[in-house]
Amino acid sequence: MRILAIGATGFLGPPTVRRLLDRGHEITILNRSNASIPAGASAIHGDRNRLAELRSEVARLSPELVIDFILSDAGQARELLHTVRGIAGRVLAISSMDVYRACAVLHRLDDGPLESVPLRENAALRTQPAYPKEAMRQLMHLYGWVTEDYDKVPVEQVVLGDSEIPGTVLRLPMVYGEGDPLHRLWPILKRVQDGRAVIVLEEKLASWRAARGYVGNVAAAIALAAESRQSEGRVYNVAEEPAYSELEWTRRVAAAAGWDGRIAVLPAERAPAHLRVLYNLDQHWVADTSLFRRELGYHEPVELADALRLTVEWELANAPTRVDERMFDYAAEDQAIAAD
Q: Whose CA is closest to 99, among 76, 81, 122?
C-alpha cells in the first residue's frame, strides 16, 4: 500500500514505519520538523494544523491509507477528513484509553460510581476532561502536538462518523519502551541505580492495575490494523495481558535490572508524602483486548521479559536530564520503612 503517516517521527511512529517498510509498503511521513526519517521512507514537510494547504501534495501521493499518530482534537480530525476526502481510501486514528469514563473517575474529575473492569470497547466514555489542568500543561510541554482542546473522544466520533471515508480507531495504553519521553520506568530504575535495598509503595497504588504496552508490540498492532480491511469502522483496545498490579510491575521491572531487594507496601497514612497518590486508585484502568486479538489475530511479537530487558537497557543509557529530586526523598522513605 501507499501510506501517508502524519506525525510519525516521535515515539510510536518510527517503529511502526519500519515495520510497515519491512512488509513492502510505501511510506511517506508528513511532519513539520526535520526529524530523522526512517531509511526507506519519504517525507513531506508541513503543519498538521494547516493540512488543507497540503491537499494537492496529498493528492499527488494518492495514499490508500492515512495513519494519524497525533490527532489531538475534533477540529484537527475534521480538517484531516476534509483534506483526504476523495483521495485516501481509509484513515487509521491513534487514540488512547483516556477516552473511557474510568480515566475521569481515576483523576477525580468525575465523582460518580466506579467503572467495572476490564473496559471493553463499548464501555462508557468521558464527559469530563481526561486530565487535571496541571497534568495537561505537562503533556503539552512534553508533546508538541497536544493542543489546548485535546480530547480523543470527539476525535474518534469524527473519524468513525464519516460516511465516505472508512475509519479505524486504536485505543492505546500507557506505552513504555525505547524512546519513551515520559521515562515511565525511571522512578523504579533510579532507586535500583541508587542502590536502594527497599522500594516503598503506597498500599492502594501497589494493588492498582493499568493497561500497558511495549512500544514494539504497539507498533506491531498499528501495522496489523493498517493492513487489515476488516478493521474498517472498528474500535480496538490494544494492551498487554495480563494487566499487572503496580506491585507486580515494580517487582518485574526491578528484577529485569538485576535488583533483588524488598518492596515495602505501606498504608497511605504511613507512606512518605511524596509517594502518596491523590488519584482515586479504587478505579482500575484495565482494558479487554480480546476483540482485537480475535478479529485480527493479534499477539505480541516481543515477550514481556525481552520488552523489559530492552526498555531497562535504554532507560539506564538515556536517563532523563531533568529529575524532580523531591520524588526521591530517601530520608523520608527510610524513616517510613523503619517505622514499619
A: 122
| pLDDT grade for 138, boundaries at 50, 70 and 90 | confident
Contact 91, 66 (CB under 8 A): yes
Query: 308: domain range?
Result: 2-338
Percentage, residues of the chain above pLDDT 90: 88
How confident is the model at residue 35, as a pLDDT? 73
Mean of pLDDT values over 95-108: 97
pLDDT of 258 higher than 80: yes
Calpha distance 215→185 (Å, rounded)? 13
Percent of the chain with pLDDT over 70: 99
Nearest to 155 by CA among 235, 225, 75: 75
268-274, Cβ contacts within 8 angstroms, sequence gap of 24 or more: 268/202, 268/203, 268/204, 270/336, 270/339, 270/340, 271/200, 271/201, 271/202, 271/203, 271/336, 272/200, 272/329, 272/332, 272/333, 272/335, 272/336, 273/332, 274/326, 274/327, 274/329, 274/332
Q: Based on the structure, what is the number of domains in the chain?
A: 1
Q: Residue 80 is part of a domain; what is its CATH number?
A: 3.40.50.720
How much is the pLDDT for 144? 82
- pLDDT tens by residue, 17-36: 999 999 999 999 998 876 77
Amino acid in position 55? R
Average pLDDT estimate for 76-89:
96
Tell me if 16 sits within 8 A of 8, measured CB to CB.
yes
The secondary structure of 32-96 as a DSSP string is: SS-PPPPTT-EEEE--GGGGGGGHHHHHHH--SEEEES---SHHHHHHHHHHHTTT-SEEEEEEE
Grid look-up 511495549 returns 214
Q: Evaluate whether 69 touches 94 at the Cβ level (below 8 Å).
A: yes
* Position 8, amino acid: A
Q: Which amino acid is at 149?
A: D
